Amino acid sequence: MTSRSSGTRSGSASRGAAVRTVRPAYHCDACGFAVPKWVGRCPDCGSWGSIVEAAPAAAAPAATPSLAARAPSVPASPIGAVDLEEAAHRPTGVGELDRVLGGGLVPGSVVLLAGEPGVGKSTLLLEVAYRWCASAPAPAAATPSLVVSGEESAAQVRLRAERTGAVHDSLFLATETDLANVLGHIDTVKPGLLILDSVQTIASPEVDGSAGGVTQVRAVTAALVAVAKERGIATVLVGHVTKDGAIAGPRVLEHLVDVVLHFEGDRHSTLRLVRAVKNRFGAADEVGCFEMHDGGIRGLADPSGLFLSRHADPVPGTCVTVTVEGRRPLLTEVQALVAPSVLPSPRRAVSGLDSARVAMALAVLERRCKVRLHDREVFAATVGGVRVTEPSADLAVSLAVASASRDFPLPADLVAIGEVGLAGEVRPVSAVPRRLSEAARLGFTRALVPVGCGPAATGVDAPAGLSVTEVPDLGAALRAVADATRAARD
Predict the structure, then answer these.
(1) Nearest one of 478, 467, 292, 324 to 391, comparing CA atoms
(2) Environment class of 85 (CB within 10 Å of its CB; exposed 0-12, middle 13-18, buried 19+)
(3) In sequence order, what are the residues at sequence separation of 6 or more whose Cβ sits closer than 8 angstroms to the Cβ of residue 316?
(4) Would you say 116 is a known binding-site residue?
(5) CB of 446 within 8 A of CB of 467?
(6) Annotated binding-site residue? 118
(7) What is the pLDDT of residues 447-464, one digit of tens each?
(8) Which parts of this chain are annotated as the region Lon-protease-like (predicted)?
């Protein structure tokens, strides 16, 4: 009796395992996050209505078959025998972009350029396509460039090209949103440079999901990367960004490409920055500076002048510091305004600076240096629309606020570099000799730096004409500024 019942249970268990129902899987079409059941809002990225049912996965075989080895199509070779010319950079003709890329575009490389809508990505890449054709060795038709637009019509792109002077016989234009048609244009034109604007608008009919979804973006990017590597086509993909500034689509998108660039800028400012986030062919901490104007976009080889204001006489509440964007030192002017307030909670407004660091600097000034700020409104900003987030600007922010509060101007030839701690100490920062050289080049004659960052400590001579003073804390910096101001008046 016992054996019979146990056999019945084992038989029913085996039948249940054989007919086990596979639950449908769901994932977010915006970020790829998987959930066990349908929900209205993605728990990961917060998108509404983006949860879709995934295609059922194929059942795994009962036993994994053995994989037989086969001869590779290209045998392995000693690393010293690899031809370096295959990874040689070709300049695009846009100097600031070449600086970020490490010298130019490498044939077969894939670059992802992401940025906010309207920041100027299409304008910059149209200029790159034109320069690629104009600077190509004869015959120019041997390496044409192909621009595929999935967002604008051909007439819209032609209007922009006429406005910026980017019309060339070897620059080809196509408007497509189908991956098969894009590959057909590549076969016909045989370009040396391919620009796809944008990867989120291209879809493949063989892949489930809508254009811009995780599955489509992954499939389109993988196909284009394979074509670029096989045919040696330098490829630039334009990517959308989310409201948080991250690149839209799956994270694997950044792993598939060789270079990831972020195009940054404010619509109300002419300044644009191209920042390298990933670069397999060069440094990943370079920054290129551009200026938008009516005739298009142009590189700024020396952008420091954009971030400085010009005053006939020194003005209270202004101080100049030297920041480092990538490897490039940039002089930046910090401005502050302190005004009486009748409100119980005085306002604190910040533009272009880290609000948390500014609030900390105000607290240190009031507690350590007895600068009265608790009943006053404080406004702090940078000049030229540049955003400064590194701690090296703390000393300049503190001096500008103290100058505005006590209504005394700082010397016009002074730069301040250093991080301010909660105890009021001025902490060392990196690349001080490079910052001082940039300040001396632009005519500044005095500099305040942390202890241990001066010429005696670093062993690097101070630039000619620049007097460097080491300050241990914020109080010593205020005293040094006051002495310099009195000396200038006398």
Answers:
(1) 324
(2) exposed
(3) 403, 404, 406, 407, 408, 409, 410
(4) yes
(5) yes
(6) yes
(7) 999 999 998 888 888 899
(8) 377-490
Give CA–CA dist 142/189, Å, rounded.
10
Q: How far, in Å, are 180, 271, 279, 301 from residue 99 at the CA level?
A: 34, 17, 12, 10
Strands (E), 252-343: 259-265, 271-279, 287-293, 296-299, 318-325, 328-340
If you search the block for the tokens 């019309």, which residue do you land on?
A: 167
Q: Is 314 annotated as a binding residue?
A: no
* DSSP per position, 344-412: SS--EEEESB-HHHHHHHHHHHHHHS----TTEEEEEEESTT--B-SGGGHHHHHHHHHHHHHT-PPPT
Measured over all CA atoms, what is the biggest interatomic distance in the chain, rounded to whole angstroms?
Answer: 115
Tell me the residue type at 259: V
3-class DSSP assignment, residue 471: strand
Task: Specify the DSSP class assigned to residue 140.
Answer: G
Residue 147 has pLDDT above 80, yes or no: yes
Hey, which residues does 334 pair with through a beta bridge? 319, 382
Q: Which residue do the tokens 């400064």 mark?
A: 388
Q: Are 333 and 309 in contact (CB under 8 A)?
A: yes
Question: Was 371 annotated as part of a binding site?
Answer: no
Cβ pair 235, 109 in contact under 8 A: yes
465 assigned to a ligand binding site: no
d(CA 253, CA 216): 11
Could you tell me the end-to-end alpha-carbon distance of the chain, in angstroms, rounded to an integer? 115
Predicted confidence (pLDDT) per residue in 287-319, tens digit: 899 988 888 899 988 887 778 887 777 899 999
- Amino acid identity for residue 334 in this structure: V
Cα separation, 10 vs 120, in Å, equals 68
Euclidean distance between CA atoms 291 and 273, whole angstroms: 9
Residues 6+ apart with CB under 8 A from 7: none
Per-residue pLDDT at 36: 86
Distance CA 293, CA 289 (A): 13
431, with CB counted inside 10 A (0-12, 13-18, 19+), is middle
230 class by beta-carbon count within 10 Å (0-12 exposed, 13-18 middle, 19+ buried)? exposed
Sheet holding 271-279, edge to edge: 171-175, 145-149, 193-197, 234-239, 110-115, 259-265, 271-279, 287-293, 296-299
Q: Is 249 within any annotated ligand binding site?
A: no
Report how far residue 362's alpha carbon sits from residue 402's, in angstroms, rounded to the nearest whole number: 9
Q: Which domains does the chain have, with CATH numbers?
A: 24-53 (no CATH), 90-301 (3.40.50.300), 305-489 (3.30.230.10)
Residue carrying structure tokens 């007919």: 19
Q: What is the pTM of this model?
A: 0.78
